[in-house]
Amino acid sequence: MAFFIKKTDKTESEIISKLPTHIAIIMDGNGRWAKKRGLPRTAGHKVGAEAFRSIANYAKSIGLKYLTVYAFSTENWKRSEEEVDAIMGLLERFLREAIRDMDKNQVRFCFFGDLTRLSPALQAEAAEAVERSKQYEGVQVNLCLNYGGRAEILRAARIFAARCATGEAKPADLNEAAFSELLWSAGVPDPDLVIRPSGEERISNFLLWQSAYSEYYFTDTLWPDFGPRDLDLAIEAYNKRSRRFGGVK
Ligand code: FPP
Fold this sequence. Notes:
Blueprint: E1 3-7, E2 14-18, E3 22-26, H1 30-36, H2 41-62, E4 66-73, H3 81-100, H4 102-105, E5 108-112, H5 120-133, E6 140-147, H6 149-166, H7 176-180, E7 193-196, E8 215-218, H8 228-239
Parallel strand pairs: 3-4, 3-7, 4-6, 5-6, 7-8
Antiparallel strand pairs: 1-2
The chain binds farnesyl diphosphate (FPP).
């Protein structure tokens, strides 16, 4: 279990906080951030991509094991072609730079979602990022792309049903652990903390199976303004929660 020591601003006293193993973030509020400044929505996504880069670096520096971010949902295709293209362009650029700087940053990449709908260039970059970063042992960043919690659960159910149809598996073989292994997140522990900035308080089809016992943290800060200090506040709030997983402490 990872621990880190933090100084609080108010008391200057040292407290020992427990660092969650896995933090997941719904990067929301890019459009409103841009609108407030009279800028196109795409400008919000551009600054949002930078916010992500800085949070990923910070996560690594504090010793977080897993960071999962919702970058593009199965529902986001409903947006204008211009906006979708802009987000895809940012993702391509981000991955090209991540591959270029891989030895320096040492971040392991993984993708959750159906990548087959993405451009061949983006798919190739994603595959290269996964392959080349397999060796790193620090933080693992899971990028959710064309991801939806329901799509993920349906896909797992279909995989298992197909195994039953061929006789490879029996319905009674299925349990929670076996089902988890059929999800895109196979092998990744469930998120301890799910953060949603921007004042919205809903789950939006994000990690539906995995977040069954996650702690939620909502903040009014818009994603492009979300920085390391905001992550600290979320972890501080997490540390005040009593996690009982349906039991009694
Ligand atoms: C939600 O804000 C954000 C998205 C749907 C896109 C997230 C994309 C990025 C942060 C940029 C690319 C990411 C990476 C990892 C390089 P919204 O547009 O729904 O905001 P709004 O609710 O204020 O309109």
